[in-house]
Amino acid sequence: MISIGKIPISLDYILSKVSELKILSFYFGVLQVPFLINSPLRKDKNPSFGIYYRNNSIRYKDFATGESGNIFNLLMTKHHLNYRDTLSMIYNDMLRNYSKGCVTINHSKRTKVSKTIDIKVRIREWDKNDINFWTGKYGLPVDYLKSCYVVPIDMIFIYTKTGTYPYYTNRLAYAYIENKDNKISYKIYQPYNKNQKWINKQDSSVWELWHTLPEKGEKLIITSSKKDAMVISYHTGIPSISLQAESIIPKKKIINQLKNRFNQIYILYDNDFKASQNWGRMNGHKISKLFDIPQIEIPNHLKVKDSSDLYEIHGKEILCKTINKLIHICDLNLNLKSKKQ
After folding, report:
1. C-alpha span between 336 and 341 (Å, rounded)
2. Average pLDDT, stretch 95-105?
3. pLDDT of residue 19
4. Are the C-beta atoms of 118 and 164 separated by less than 8 Å?
5. Half-sphere exposure of 169 toward its Cβ, with a 13 Å CA cutoff?
6. Which pLDDT score, from 0 to 100, does residue 114 have?
7. Omega before residue 40 within 30° of 0, cis
8. DSSP string of 25-82, one letter each residue
9. Bond prior to 34 in cis (omega within 30° of 0)
10. Cα 339–chain centre separation
11. Which helix (H) or strand (E) holds 235?
C-alpha cells in the first residue's frame, strides 16, 4: 500500500472521494456512459472504443482489437504504469486538490444519447418490487402505467455503426416509450442508479403522455416530468403532459394547437425551494410569459418540489386539494384581470 502522510492511497479511499465517472471525465473527457469514442490507445479515425457500465463499474472494450478492462486497466495501459502507480497518479492529479477544497467536475444524472447511437430495451414482467415502487410510493397501478407506455426492463441494447452491445440494467429499471410520427423512442429511468438515473434517446420535440390527451378538454397542466404528469392525471383527473426538460421552449404552433383543444392551460414546474436558484420557477415563468399561460406552483410550506413528492409525502387528498386550489385561485385572478380590461 502506498501512503502519503496519513492518507492511504487505496482503491477504496479513491472511490470514497471521486466516482469512476469523474475519473473517466478527468482523463478522457467522457461525460456520459455508455459512450463510443476514438481509441485513446491507438490511432483511430472512426470511433470504435466503447465505454459502458457493468455491475455499477465503468468498463471499456476496444472493438477493433478486442481488448477490454476497467477504467484503472485503461489508465495503466495509457500511461504505462503499474497498478500502485496508477492509484498514486489519480491521487496526485485529483485528490490533493480535492482535499484542499478545489472545485471538482460535476455531472448530471441525465445522459442524452448521441444521435449516432440508437437504443432498444428488453422488457421483463412486472413484479412485486415494481408494484411497491409505483403503486406504493405514487399510487399508480400497473394497468395505468401500461396505458402510459411505461414498461419494466432488464437490458439495454446500444446500436452503433460497429455493432450491437447489450447492457444489464439495475434491478428497478423502466423504459418510458413514446411514439411520435410513427417513430418509437425510449427514455430509460433507473430510480436508484446514482450514475445513470436517466438515459434519453427522445429528442426535444417529443411530448410525454401526448397520446393520453382527449381531443377536447376543459383544463390541461404542462408539468416537469412524465412521472409528475402521470401522478397529476391519474389522481386529479386533469390531463397532464411534459416536455423532455423544463428548459425546453416548445414550438408556438404546438402551444396554439393545445390552446385550441383545451379551454385553459396551466404551467406547473418544480418549486426548487431548496436551491440557490429556483430553476423550475424561472423556466415556468419563461413559458408563461412567452405563451400567455398562467403559472402555478406548489407552495413552499409543503416542503416538496413536485407533484410526485407531494403525493409520496402528503398523500392523494393533499395533492388533489393543493392542485385544485392553485387552479381555482389562478382562475379567479384571470377573471378579475379580464374584468378590469
Report:
1. 9
2. 38
3. 86
4. no
5. 26
6. 58
7. no
8. HHHH---SSSEEE--SSS--SS--EEEEEETTEEEEEETTT--EEEHHHHHHHHHT--
9. yes
10. 43
11. helix 226-236
Task: Kindly report, residue by residue over 244-291, the tens digit of the pLDDT.
Answer: 999 999 999 999 999 999 999 999 999 999 999 999 999 999 999 999
Q: 3-state class of 282 per DSSP?
A: helix
Amino acid at 328: H
Q: Identity (one letter) of the amino acid at 266?
A: Y
Neighbours of 172 (CB within 10 A): 18
Q: Which grid coordinates belong to 37?
A: 469514442
Contact between 222 and 207 (Cβ < 8 Å)? no
Per the CB < 8 A criterion, the answer to whether 112 and 200 are in contact is: yes
Confidence check: pLDDT of 339 > 80: no
Is-contact 47 36, C-beta < 8 A? yes
The secondary structure of 184-231 as a DSSP string is EEEEEE-TT-SS-SEEE---TTPPBTGGG--SSEEEEEEES-HHHHHH
Which grid cell sits at 67?
481488448
DSSP state at residue 276: S
- Show the cell assigned to 174: 423502466
Residues 132-182 have pLDDT tens digits of: 999 999 999 999 999 999 999 988 877 777 666 777 788 899 999 998 887
- Strands 198-200 and 110-112 turn out to be parallel
Residues 6+ apart with CB under 8 A from 47: 36, 37, 38, 160
Q: Tell me the C-alpha distance between 294 and 255, whole Å.
A: 13
Helix axes 226-236, 316-340, angle to 10 degrees: 90
For 34-57, write each residue's pLDDT tens digit.
888 888 898 887 788 999 999 989
Please give the order of strands across the beta sheet that includes 35-37. 35-37, 49-54, 57-62, 68-70
Q: Kind of pairing, strands 217-223 and 240-242?
A: parallel
